[in-house]
Amino acid sequence: MDSGLGNWPSYDPHNFSQLRTSDPSRSSKMAPATYHPTHNRVVPPADQVINTEAKHILLREIYRRAEEKIDLIAATSPLQLTPKRAASDNLTPEHGSKQPRVST
Amino acid sequence: MSIWNYVVTAHKPTNVTHSRVGNFTSPQDLNLIIAKCTRIEIHLLTPQGLQPMLDVPIYGRIATLELFRSHGEAQDFLFIATERYKFCVLQWDSETSELVTRAMGDVSDRIGRATDNGQIGIIDPDCRLIGLHLYDGLFKVIPFDNRGQLKEAFNIRLEELQVLDIKFLYGCSKPTIVVLYQDNKDARHAKTYEVSLKDKDFVEGPWSQNNLDNGADLLIPVPPPLCGVLIIGEETIVYCSANAFKAIPIRPSITKAYGRVDPDGSRYLLGDHTGLLSLLVITHEKEKVTGLKIEPLGETSIASTISYLDNAFVYIGSSYGDSQLIKLNQQPDAKGSYVEVLERYVNLGPIVDFCVVDLERQGQGQVVTCSGAYKDGSLRVVRNGIGINEQASVELQGIKGMWSLRSSTDDLFDTFLVVSFISETRILAMNLEDELEETEIEGFCSQVTSSSVRLVSSTTRELRNEWHAPSGYSINVATANATQVLLATGGGHLVYLEIGDGILQEIKHAQLEYEISCLDINPIGENPNHSHLAAVGMWTDISVRIFSLPELNLITKEPLGGEIIPRSVLLCAFEGISYLLCALGDGHLLNFLLNTSTGELTDRKKVSLGTQPITLRTFSSKNTTHVFAASDRPTVIYSSNKKLLYSNVNLKEVSHMCPFNSAAFPDSLAIAKEGELTIGTIDDIQKLHIRSIPLGEHARRICHQEQSRTFAICSLKYIPSAEEPETHFVRLLDDQTFEFISTYPLDTYEYGCFIISCSFSDDSNVYYCVGTAYVLPEENEPSKGRILVFAVEDGKLQLIAEKETKGAVYCLNAFNGKLLAAINQKIQLYKWVLRDDGTHELQSECGHHGHILALYVQTRGDFIVVGDLMKSISLLIYKHEEGAIEERARDYNANWMSAVEILDDDIYLGAENSFNLFTVRKNSEGATDEERGRLEVVGEYHLGEFINRFRHGSLVMRLPDSEVGQIPTVIFGTINGVIGVIASLPHDQYVFLEKLQSSLRKVIKGVGGLSHEQWRSFSNDKKTVEARNFLDGDLIESFLDLNRSKMDEVSQAVGVSVEELCKRVEELTRLH
């Protein structure tokens, strides 16, 4: 493996073993048949017709932030079943005063 | 021409853009999948080499193509995304041999700026998601669920705006991409991101690498156990992973393609912009990368894709030259190359320019293209039909039939040619000087005269046996094979004889109700010397009948319909399928499938070959049997993929043909033409013949000059070591040998932009005029150019006159005995003026401003049609009295043009850079100046190909009395190597074919569920509208590939019989 050449991978040793080396200046002329599907399975299953989610990336970001906010409030709310956390020092005032407007 | 146009491909795209290797057609099959822009080819690796399996048209331009293995699957799936933002996942169903769509969809966004560097489509190696980079600043994710089903796609904001490449990394617990990008200071960096499917967002990845090679352009992900990524630059190659960084310097080069060799990712093949193939080796110890090594292997075509196949064989796909199958040898050859080219696959792309000429003066156009780029540049001579290469000929009038004979049945070669005339039979033989001379028979044959059948012995030359027709009846037609004779006499007598050992024996006689017009007993069964069926064509009831032999029992009677009698019948077999061919007196040919055991005739089809009676004969070439149909339009009938095809023979009129395989003229045919007997070899049996003339440089413009029998080209050569590596030339080539016979080098920085052959008023000489531009590095737009006028004197280019211009001369036209030039934004007319000293000069007469860049100009009479860089088509008129050029009308759409042509006085054809075609019409009858000043868009169509050139002309020989011969055509050439034909149809034919097209859309479905209607809709940045007044000939002609039941379905929808549909569509195929 010094030169890196040789020891080429072989998946099926028969492949190309009977290749007749035609004159390489002449080009290969074998033309495959052209495929014209007439069956119905060119149409994928209904659930595999894929589209991009309708929600724009910006809206998604806004909703996500809103949700994060809810989560944060929920985490600090007294209704939480888990033991109440001590109010953190860096909690900004508006977080404490605002109520969630969006339900989800 | 007309506004109702039919667009059809004569030569399919050959530019290979993608290739992948995998187990696609079965878990055991190793396949090579190739994308050629709008088509996919599936090949199978076999001991004999690459075996083509299927050519799959895709209703879209393929932007990305990947093979991937979903969880728990034994076979790979194929992912394809198109430039118009459609994608599909295809699976091969090996039971039905069909492509099944697993998923498809639309991944376009309503808002977004398309990426500058093309689309990227990648699949996570652990098959968790498909990643797409289609718009700047967005990365689209199509997630897989755990059953391998695709889910709704979503976008992620990608901060990097100038993305060069994105790849998935191997061996990451979460799907991770590496992004190669350029910042706004033009520095290049790589960065990794994990894709969080839950949050639909990126998370900072494990590593990043800043300030890479300024030419870094390509990422190669390395599979386990090493993992990480290779970053290929122009001067360095870097290996990067979370815990390793290795770099090596390389000889400056631009890597265009790579192919992984080993499954463990330790070796890669790299192909650069000069066609050099190198091997990149990652050295490693205990799964740790210790270094990189690169080694040049040898030269190939300039690669656009490289796929390691098996056992040291590699596929090189090319956009600029022929694609290749190469072998990597362990030892270098004499030139030090480890690369051995074993096969070449023709690629005409990019067709930058072409011309249509009749080099052999046969009344048939040939297309000569400027193909390929850089070192792989070439001229290609593309010719339709099958040529006969004449070896010998003699004048002989009135030939009525011909047969070749061997001295004995064991002989390899034919010795004699038996030529029969009305009242005599002559025997020709090859003499020692390889000349044909008349001789006495020494064969063993049967001769049929009007009253008897004579069996003549070989050695003694004596009449061995004779069979006499009943008195009062003469023999009208007869046919024979090695052991049988079938003949018909007047009065409808059919007589069957068998040839024994020197004996002719009447076996059976049958009395038919009508006269017999033609017969055949060509053996197509197992015994090559004996037939058990006879085909008989009849007068009066116009039928063809199949009889059993030796009983002469009628098995099948097939009425032909119509009033034209059958003139020649032939039993034949192609690719294991038996046919009965029946030629009529009016040049039509019927073909039937023949069931050899029952004699049943089915699947009747009709084609029109010519207008005169046809004589059918079989012959073989390269061990395959074909049929020669001699008529006013000689045709070879052959079979490919179990479908009968008809290819023109490039001869004017042939009355008889017989195979003649003599020692001096092996594998030849004897052909009786008007007053002449010719012996010649036949081309390979295929429709298009392409001859390649490698130039080693890039030809950009070509034109032919009939008078000097030369071609002139504008070309450029790259000499990497030179100070200015690009040098441009005007070269003169002999039109027969294609050798350079004269060269005129252009100045430094001077580009040859256009070339025409023309003459001027008051000067009988013919000149080559060349338009050039000085492309200076500091200028955005050339401000200087030249028009050079050359004469061909003694086979040399002589510069007769030159004229400096204030810009690039993009186009030249001979115009009213003057020269019309398009120079930057201006159209300028020059007259050819005789100076006092007897020399000529170009003198400016008038001009017209008002274009962005006038790139393409065509003229007709006093009208000038200009294709602008971005202002579509405008129509100008030259006013003789005022000596002025004025604008008459324009199309106000903002089309970026790539070619224009004038179809007729009122209709102009344009191609634009979003791969669309359109026609506009002059509105002479408009009520107001405003209306008259508008070119009305009358036709729109998405071709999906970038057209560089239109030319009037035809690839096929035109017969004035055939219907197809009346249809005017324009030929086009494209970047993908497509040669196409646009045919202007009469309105009624257009309406008929449009109906056929819409029925075919319902029967032939788009692969991957892609819609034909959407694909052909005219679409650019500004609008997308349904195609109109253009028909897709490729779809229409695929009718002939359908099976009978689907044909019936279409026939019912259209309300026209299958036979009539076949005939009309077959006629259209003869346009190209």
Automatic annotation (TrEMBL), chain A:
Positions of the UniProt region annotated as Disordered: 1-47, 74-104
Source taxon at top rank: Eukaryota
Compositional bias ranges of the Polar residues kind: 15-28
Signal peptide: none
Domain DET1- and DDB1-associated protein: 5-68
Pfam family name, one: DDA1
Family label: Belongs to the DDA1 family.
Protein name per UniProt: DET1- and DDB1-associated protein 1 domain-containing protein
Automatic annotation (TrEMBL), chain B:
SUPFAM superfamilies hit by this protein: WD40 repeat-like (SSF50978)
Domain RSE1/DDB1/CPSF1 second beta-propeller stretches: 389-682
Domain RSE1/DDB1/CPSF1 C-terminal: 728-1041
InterPro entries assigned: Beta-prop_RSE1/DDB1/CPSF1_1st, Beta-prop_RSE1/DDB1/CPSF1_2nd, RSE1/DDB1/CFT1, RSE1/DDB1/CPSF1_C, WD40/YVTN_repeat-like_dom_sf, WD40_repeat_dom_sf
Subcellular location: Nucleus
Main location group: nucleus
Domain RSE1/DDB1/CPSF1 first beta-propeller: 16-344
Bilayer-crossing regions: none
Pfam families: Beta-prop_RSE1_1st, Beta-prop_RSE1_2nd, CPSF_A
Keywords, alphabetical: Nucleus
Superkingdom, taxonomy of origin: Eukaryota
Full protein name: DNA damage-binding protein 1a
Species of origin: Stylosanthes scabra
